[in-house]
Predict the 3D structure of the following.
Amino acid sequence: MTETAHFPLMLAGSDKRSATYTKVTSPFDDHVIATVETASEEDIEQALTTAHALFTDRDAWLSVPERIAILEKSVTLIQEQADALARGAAEEGGKPLVDSQVEMTRCIESIRLCADALRHEVAKPVPMSVNAASQHRATMISKEPIGVVVAVSAFNHPLNLIAHQVGPAIAAGCPVIVKPAENTPLSCLRLVEIFHQAGLPEAWCQVMLPQNHDIAEALVTDPRVAFFSFIGSAKVGWYLRSKLAPGTRCALEHGGVAPVIVSEKADIPRAIPALAKGGFYHAGQVCVSVQRIYVHQSIAKAVAEQLSIAAKEMVVGDPLSGKTEVGPLIRAGEVKRVATWVQEAIDEGAELLCGGTTLENHCYAPTVLFNPSPDSKVSQAEVFGPVVCIYPYDDVEQAIQSANSLDVAFQASVYSQDIDEAMMMSHRLAASAVMINEHTAFRVDWMPFAGLRHSGLGTGGIPYTLEDMQVEKMIVITSKGIQ
């Protein structure tokens, strides 16, 4: 029998062994993958003390060339281990291997983008010599690390989310303490170990799984934290923001209930595969997953039936199989919750076109509901499961109003071959990004990624996060030699 892997605390300057640990299990068959030591209040204090002391010693800061070299070496090392990292992420997170491999590719690209962003970073000087008071003066703008970063991450993209939170911190020159998701900490630990192997001193990136929520909150809300990066539920994110120490800046990335509007002028054969992918990718456990599809009544039932056919054809099962398209939900409790929401929608008048069944190994069949009540949970809140709802509409203005009616707003999409119609709908949708003839979950890692309303605060994406983790310092030079 293979011995279960054990991951110690990633606490700089200490070989301390924690007396407590947590088990990391497969969401598919519950087998124990590894054990991970958990951090006490004293461990958190030590990590913060180390990180803060590092930042306050300006002579210890990593230079830009050093940071670029670390990031580039990391890319090389990650590429060498890409297959194992992707398989590990699929095993602990349940995302199908084919999709975890895509995530691995994005993770590599994200870290490469961090190095590239440093090379192309510019700061625009503030104009001087434009009036008597500013005469004989010029300005220089430099960028400095903001301070200690605490990053709290989510389970659904255990490789690329860490790249988006830790990569920019390394690029900015910030000491960073990471709290990975309890369900998927191994990918984070493996990536950070690679950063260390690439030359990043251990003190610059520490990884902690706190023993309880109170200790985690103490980490986040400590006054030595300069920037808080959070990816997770809105309830937790907004709560933690309310507890931050004065002066701590933050970026929050929560979920949405992503809307799609499909016009009668849409290219339906091209739309169906994209909508199926956007709705059922990673079993719907994506913050911008397709959930609410408003379809013109003349084609609504046909679109729903075609999407149901696509859903039924998807292979559901073991995430480590190269054939699997939809894996398990992250926890058994989530399967029960999704099943309850679907049954409630049916009881409230929705027509079940496919799915609606709990499968073995914490899987749930890809589900299509036709015309749920606007008051059903599946219409009002993020399902975070493989469930897509289709609503027929007569008037596009009503469809837009319904799409915009919730307290969340993130990414949306429009399907139409009429460019004027598509642009009109795009401009009227409440969203930070609208995809035309593409599903709502489309993303590349250099684009802005921003939740609006309750969906988040600030803008994600490699260059935007890097900007958040820096401060601009202006130096004003006075000299009679300046005209």
